[in-house]
Known about the structure:
The complex is a heterodimer.
Chain A: E1 24-26, E2 32-36, E3 46-47, E4 54-55, E5 60-63, E6 72-73, E7 78-87, E8 95-103, H1 124-133, H2 146-150, E9 160-165, H3 174-181, H4 183-197, E10 201-207, H5 211-221, E11 227-232, H6 241-249, E12 264-268, H7 269-281, E13 287-293, E14 301-306, H8 311-317, E15 325-330, E16 337-338, E17 352-357, H9 358-361, H10 374-378, H11 385-393, H12 397-402, H13 413-417, H14 424-478, H15 480-486
Parallel strand pairs in A: 1-14, 9-10, 9-12, 10-11, 13-17
Antiparallel strand pairs in A: 2-8, 3-5, 4-7, 5-6, 7-8, 13-14, 15-16, 15-17
Chain B: H1 18-65, H2 71-75, H3 78-88, H4 96-111, H5 124-135, H6 137-140, H7 157-165, H8 179-188, H9 193-196, H10 203-208, H11 220-232, H12 239-258, H13 266-271, H14 275-282, H15 293-313, H16 320-337
Amino acid sequence: MKLFPIMGGIHPDYRKELASEKAIVPMPIPATLYLPLQQHMGAPGITTVEPGTEVKKGQVLARGQGLVSAPVHAPTSGRIAAITEMMAPHPSGLPTMTIILDSDGKDEWGDLPAAIADPFAASAQEIRDRVAVSGIVGLGGATFPSAVKLGLGNQHKLEILVLNGAECEPYLCCDDRVMREHADEVVDGARIMAHALGAPQIIIAVEDNKPQAITALTQAASAFTNVTVASVPVQYPMGAERHLTQALTGRETPARKLTADVGVVVHNVATARAVHQAVRFGRPLLSRVVTVSGGAVAEPKNVEVLLGTRVAELLAFCGGLSKDSRRIISGGPMMGQPLPSLDVPVVKGTSGILALTKAETKENATQPCIRCGSCVSYCPCGLVPVEMAAFIRSEKLEEAAKIGVQDCVSCGSCSYICPSHIPLVHYFNYAKGRIAALDRERRKADQTKALVSAHNARLERAAQAKREAAARAKAQSENPDAGRVNA
Amino acid sequence: MSIVVDKSGPFTHGSNNVQKTMFTVLAALTPATLFNLWLFGWPAIFLFLVTMLSCVGCEALCMRMRGDSPERALSDGSVLITGWLLALSLPPWAPWWVAAIASIFAVLLAKHAFGGLGQNVFNPAMIGRVVVLVSFPVQMTAFVPSKPLFSAAAPSFAESLHVTFGRGVSLDGISAASQLGFIKTELARGIPVNQSLAHLPSLSELMLGFHPGSMGETAVPLILLGGLFLMWRKIISWHIPVAMLGTLFVLGTIFSTMDPGRHATGMFHLLSGASFLGAFFIATDYVTSPVSKSGQLAFGIGIGLLTWIIRTYAGYPEGVAFAVLLMNALTPILDQHFRPRVFGRTRQGAPLPLKGDK
Lengths: 487, 358
């Protein structure tokens, strides 16, 4: 397949070999599961159970609300112990509403929606509804509700569904294992999604450091003429949606548009497998494959983990941590987030739990920028990180925005390559957050202003009406006949 | 076990750092430097040491004044490059005080007055060189023919001490002009360039470095070797050297073809003076050159053009240092005008049009 070059990017130390040859193992059911109502982009779910409720496996615990949301299901049978605020699996460590489920150890299934016998005869809406009620979100880490993304065919003419199996983050190999071990389910899920999207063509993109996955998928896809498996070069961040789209089709997604605007929708391979299970068997999203790896993990593994499992228990299942653990990361080392504690749960977006040693993080004191320009050469978005950082350091956020800080995808290539160890992405994330907050404030101020001026206009109109009424009354009293004529 | 949440990712890093970068540059300079120290003997070695020590001393002083530990002065290695390049840009038999004054201006004025590492607008080594060139033209243009160490012509250790540290050693008997200086003086006497060129060593001899000049102006092959090494290590890219040397060569070739009596050839321009040292080691200084590749091309072309103009029309025979400094001044402007195109946007910064859009 003809591929197109993407600009910039790096070749980090991948260290996938720590876990890539470890087959997926299921983890025993923990005694207690912690299920945040918000495990996805959008509005948090609304609980449909009370403390004390006995629940079956697969039962809805919280339903989605609004257009962009997702439900939460019981990963096993048991009893709701509490619904309370607990620390979120987020660097802030802020509390988030969480359902605590005590497992009864029976793992009894509840009633599930019926399997859709022939998904290709079903309507697109039916597929989307099934995906929505199954709580499926983008499992690559973005956690955008998949049903919403499957609705893109309504407003856009789509040509290609790209299944993202690039897995360009170092260490992570959960997608690799899913593709190797469940290639048929991935391909079937992809075909169902393409059907829902109305996209005639499917490309499954895998970085060429995963030859077994490519072989397995090629085999699984051989029966379907519209499914192609593309081996893309190893180049971080190949798995970024827009960059992958460009590498496969040569189409460059305009700024502030979606890949759907150029006829392409990108979904993760694990998401496709979840769609397969939801459509073919009615099974909601209850678990996911997590790569547990890093130099400080005794036995790196790929684990099928129930959502809500505490990270500490998952790490214990992998032999525990060694003393030289320096950082605990959820996701990959490039774009993942540091965890505030080991007492947070695995959620839908947790693709990896990494415990990295100091030798792996290669942290170093920040030195002055020597303007080497590496960040400019390696930026896959064509930005000038050195200049943006200089603006942000002096709080000139508008200047930074003018030269594109909001177009930064936070891939981390610049920070990775910086010889002065300047945490560039940290600056950009700060700026993006501040700019968004300022925008919100400005909108709020504008809204207030609009309300106030509307209020004033209303008062003015009322006063005007009063004045006119008074004038009319006066005119009538002076000339009583005039009114009568009009009447 | 420690839980650290203090910054955004990435939580891994390439193996590069500032020290490694700086010491790679020094390694790349080493072969040419050793060759030149051998070529010009003990006085050159003394001068090299004086320059390095003065620069390091100035750096340590500045670090102390800003309340930083002076040991850190050496740790990033940047001052070693400044001192090294400055030494290479001086006539090898110059007296010690020329080197000391140049070092003070380079490190105190050009670097630390602007805020230290990464903050300087102008290349410190070139500021040092230009200050002494303008102030002490006699000492700065007294070049000696090469007298390789341990050869019969070489001065003894004691004589050499006298050359560098003594008072008023007259170089009248032995000094010679550099080739660029020679053709300039001859031209002023009315002798066409193509005739005076005949009195100079052949191009191949020029290339090998057995001719009068500053230390870094000789040994072109070794400088080139160092430059290619830096490119291989991805410390520098081809953009600045190729743009600068290419411009110099093209201008030299065109004008010497049109008027061989007035203009030196392109090859002569490349192989004489500090063209190669400038292209690979001075113009490519990170701090004072543009950060984008397109900016670097413009920067290199500018240096090539200015070097050629200064050499051809100005009072000074050699123009690399001036050209580099002039283009340094333009770097912030080049940085503003030569940004890469942002993904998904036009060069002007608007989102790319969609198919079907107007």
